[in-house]
């Protein structure tokens, strides 16, 4: 499992993530959850193994070729949403109120 996370983490960089958000990301319903992952990953208190998992999740979402191609309208983002949900579940207690507050400021009507 860690090899798989490490593989997808290679596709994550802050620059790639920003480009993704500017392009495709705005159309995603789970964008607030992606931003929660991003803020949790940036936190110095988040353990390295959790950061690796979060980087893997972001890398998977950024990567255009994954289990179900994002080109398939309607179902193409389901695998990405599942990866994001799993990453947030793993991060659990490391997601701080400050992370959620930053996301709420960006997306006032989002459910985070």
From TrEMBL:
The organism's place on the tree of life at top rank: Bacteria
Localisation: Endomembrane system
InterPro entries according to UniProt: DUF1232 (IPR010652)
Which keywords appear in this protein's UniProt record, sorted alphabetically? Membrane, Transmembrane, Transmembrane helix
Q: Which parts of the sequence belong to the DUF1232 domain?
A: 50-85
Pfam families named among the record's database cross-references: DUF1232
Topological relation to the membrane, as annotated: Multi-pass membrane protein
Which intervals of the chain form a coiled coil?
Answer: none
Q: Which GO terms describe its cellular component?
A: endomembrane system
Instruction: State the name under which the record lists this protein.
Output: DUF1232 domain-containing protein
Originating organism: Megasphaera stantonii
